[in-house]
């Protein structure tokens, strides 16, 4: 397995070869994920699995553009990715996703892609356009959840970080299964879908979704949870057969 972040590279063996692109928003998240794979203890050069970790930018549009570029570049080189993962820190809906907990999305939903009407929010799908939800491969979500002890549920993608209890309640009323909100998952998923590649979203909770208190965000704890969670990924990826686990291409 080869892992490449800006400063990290690791080669190890793999039962089933995989080529994974992990897209975080910022470099601190990228490094937290890469740390999970770059240990000195694994150095077998026979494997051909790859994990590339990129800081794709904040927000769904930049995340989609950066992810699509990485996917196209790999495909043109003849080494296409087999899985894309949107990863990073997130706000957690309380009490289901406490600060420091890990969430693996079984649904990646754009929560503010639509129209505001006198009768409330209407998603673009009800206006006759596009999609608002991508669903990661079920068996992979199940196995990763079991391996990491993560919670599983919907992760919302928003362009505006929730800052009031009223907005948090509105989102939960519309998405009762939502465990977390972040700003990139849907963009990464759209890029992956356009390449026919399955997608995951993995988030570590740094703050509650609700009244804004940026000073209280526990970023260090969340980054540590991200590293710990990704540290348990490799064996699950090695035993995952994408062909047994169709996704919404
Ligand atoms: O300042 C730092 O050291 C630092 C380190 C790592 C990450 C950050 C970020 O600010 C990341 C922004 C990123 O986090 C997601 N996020 C986190 N909490 C929420 C939330 O409550 N609602 C929506 N998004 C959230 C989001 O994906 C941002 O892109 C700083």
Outline the secondary-structure elements.
Blueprint: E1 2-4, E2 9-10, E3 19-24, H1 27-37, E4 50-55, H2 60-76, E5 83-92, E6 102-110, E7 114-117, E8 120-123, E9 133-134, H3 138-148, E10 151-157, H4 165-174, E11 178-182, H5 185-194, E12 199-208, H6 219-230, H7 233-239
Parallel strand pairs: 1-4, 3-4, 3-5, 5-12, 6-10, 10-11
Antiparallel strand pairs: 1-2, 5-11, 6-9, 6-12, 7-8
This protein binds ligand LNDFFVEH.
Keywords summarizing the entry:
249 residues; alpha/beta; Rossmann fold; 7 helices; globular; binds ligand LNDFFVEH; FL_hydrolase_MqnB; Nucleoside_phosphorylase_d; glycosidase
Ligand inventory? the ligand O=C(O)c1cccc(C(=O)CC[C@H]2O[C@@H](n3cnc4c(=O)[nH]cnc43)[C@H](O)[C@@H]2O)c1
CATH topology: Rossmann fold
> Which strand order spans the largest sheet, edge to edge or round the barrel?
5-11-10-6-12
Shape verdict: globular
Using only CA atoms, what is the Rg? 17 Å
CATH first level: Alpha Beta
- Portion in helices: 25-40%
Helix count from the secondary structure assignment: 7
* Biggest pleated-sheet summary: 5 strands, mixed, barrel
Tally of structural domains = 1
Secondary-structure element pattern, one letter each: EEEHEHEEEEEHEHEHEHH
Instruction: Decide which structural class fits the backbone.
Output: alpha/beta
The share of residues in extended strands comes to: 25-35%
According to DSSP, the number of beta strands is 12
Which stretches of 5+ consecutive residues score pLDDT under 50? 6-14, 41-46
- What is the average per-residue confidence, as pLDDT, rounded to a whole number? 91
| CATH architecture term | 3-Layer(aba) Sandwich
Per CATH, the superfamily is Nucleoside phosphorylase domain
């Amino acid at each position: 397995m080869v892992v490449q972040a800006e400063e990290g590279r690791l080669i190890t063996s793999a039962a089933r070869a995989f080529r994974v692109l992990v897209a975080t928003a910022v470099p601190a998240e990228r490094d937290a994920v890469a740390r999970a794979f770059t240990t000195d203890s694994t150095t077998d050069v026979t494997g051909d699995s790859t994990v590339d970790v990129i800081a794709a930018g904040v927000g769904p549009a930049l995340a989609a553009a950066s992810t699509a570029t990485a996917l196209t570049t790999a495909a043109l080189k003849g080494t296409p990715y087999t899985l894309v993962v949107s990863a990073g820190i997130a706000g957690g809906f309380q009490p289901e996703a406490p600060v420091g907990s890990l969430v693996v999305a079984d649904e990646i939903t754009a929560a503010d892609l639509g129209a505001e009407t006198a009768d409330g929010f209407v998603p673009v799908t009800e206006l006759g356009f596009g999609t608002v939800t991508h669903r990661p491969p079920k068996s992979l979500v199940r196995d990763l959840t079991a391996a990491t002890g993560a919670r599983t549920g919907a992760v919302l993608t928003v362009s505006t970080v929730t800052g009031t209890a009223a907005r948090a309640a509105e989102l939960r009323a519309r998405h009762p299964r939502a465990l977390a909100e972040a700003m990139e998952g849907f963009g990464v998923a759209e890029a992956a879908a356009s390449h026919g590649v399955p997608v995951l979203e993995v988030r570590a909770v740094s703050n509650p979704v609700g009244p804004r208190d940026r000073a209280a965000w526990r970023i260090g704890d969340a980054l540590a949870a991200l590293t710990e969670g990704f540290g348990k990924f490799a064996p699950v990826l090695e035993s995952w057969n994408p062909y047994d686990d169709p996704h919404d291409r």
